[in-house]
Amino acid sequence: MDEQQSREMAAQLRQPKGDEGIKTGEWMSDGNKTIILDTLSTLNAETNDRILEIGMGNGHFVSEIVSIDPSISYSGCDFSELMVEESRKNNQEWIANQQAEFVHTNGISLPFDEHTFTKLFTVNTIYFWEDQWLVLAEFKRVLKTEGLLVIGLRPKRLMENIPFTRFGFNLFSKEDVADLLTENGFEVLSVAENTEPAFELNGKQIIMENLVITAKKAV
Ligand SMILES: C[S@@+](CC[C@H](N)C(=O)[O-])C[C@H]1O[C@@H](n2cnc3c(N)ncnc32)[C@H](O)[C@@H]1O
């Protein structure tokens, strides 16, 4: 992959657009299956949960949440209009029975009242938060007092070996995420380091790992 291709790939991962964006959405739901399922396992959706996801891509895994129980509701926000459209196409059944909705947001303000959600999660978006304190302030605002925040990401030591992350990705170690959360009014509850099947990129096998971090609002 040359520099131009790496730049284009990074831009698509940050905010999928156009025909290439549809393929990027599919590539992400395929390649990120393990980190997403690890995050969902930690999220542990249960009866009456009201769940918010930030940056759901094409929404391929929403059924894993809402099929658990009809009392669970899911809202997905993404600042890619294309990913909101794709998510709506992929989840018509859950939209029709009013368990799922997909909202186009600007990436900063969330169109929900305070104390709305029991759980909020996000996978592979932390790299793109421009104003981290504003993002976390919004998360705190919309989460209920005892609400759970779950963040899935790939650690810095792995991401820095992937060429496209040089273009617009902020990379985090587990300590960096814990510090960021603590400095912004969250109490870290757990940090899990998970190994994933190896992944092939440009003919090279990359050992994959993910971090899943949980936190709640500090009192
Ligand atoms: C790398 S993709 C990850 C998609 C999916 N969560 C996954 O892990 O496969 C990042 C997604 O989050 C969206 N996104 C990134 N930053 C965002 C923000 N601040 N607010 C809303 N959506 C955001 C992008 O448009 C894109 O759909």
CATH topology: Rossmann fold
Radius of gyration (Å): 17 Å
Poorly predicted tracts of residues: none
Bound small molecules, which ones? S-adenosylmethionine
- Helical stretch tally: 9
Per DSSP E runs of 2 or more residues, the count of β-strands stands at 7
Report the helical percentage. 25-40%
Overall pLDDT, averaged?
Answer: 95
- CATH 4th-level superfamily: Vaccinia Virus protein VP39
The protein's oligomeric status is single chain
- The proportion of residues in beta strands is 25-35%
Order of SSEs, N→C? HHHEHEHHEEHEHHEE
Please describe the biggest sheet, giving its number of strands, its sense, and whether it closes into a barrel.
7 strands, mixed
Please tell me about this protein's structure.
The protein has 219 residues and is of the alpha/beta class. It has a single domain, classed as Vaccinia Virus protein VP39 (Rossmann fold, 3-Layer(aba) Sandwich). Helix content is 37%, strand content 29%. A 7-stranded mixed β-sheet has the order 3-2-1-4-5-7-6. The protein is globular. The mean pLDDT is 95. It binds S-adenosylmethionine (SAM).
